[in-house]
Amino acid sequence: MKFKRILLKLSGEALMGSQGHGIDSQVVNLIADQVKAIQALGVEVALVIGGGNFFRGVSGVTSGMDRVSADHMGMLATMINALALQDALEQKGVQTRVMSGIDMPKVAESYIRRRAMRHMEKGRVVIFGAGTGNPYFSTDTAAALRANEINAEVVMKATNVDGIYSADPKTDPAAVKYDRISFQEVLERDLKVMDAAAIALCRENHLPILVFNMMRPGNLMAAVEGDVVGTLVD
After folding, report:
1. Domain extent for 97
2. Which of 17, 110, 114, 151 has the fewest CB atoms within 10 Å, measured from its CB?
């Protein structure tokens, strides 16, 4: 394995598959199968999941909601996804812990850095829910923060495209795929890989980001083995 400890960032939208909202059990099981496969080989895995399949704080603001209230609703949406993925993993025999950035002791453990690292050392998959626990921060920023805190070797951002392109490949047939690109180029070209705060946090701490298509079975395994998959930002 090229990577011993990873943080996998999943969007909430990825979990809804083609149904347009909510959680598609087939997609959740596909993700759980891939996580189980790499965890069985000794890779320590942490995950951060968005909540866009239920609610996005930014969309709440555009409809007139208070930003803090909207962001709190978005954090709760990420916890729904975290619990769904925990259930799918544990049904496959994978020990899992959900840790929340907001205290909710009857649902999940509160996030404590040392406890999270200990869970991973014991072979448990750790799912970080509720973002950073603070409004105004996206789950991208939460992923970058948690990855640095737990000393992950890479942030793997799972998408439904096979890497970073110069433009949207779905609408621009002339879009060029990058195999490798620098943090500075991502920011200068406004490539929308992750938000600027997340990119800056990874750049300052020399933490690479791998953007790849996880919906293609086997891609996660190939990524942790060091094969050329997706686009590497470093």
Report:
1. 5-233
2. 114
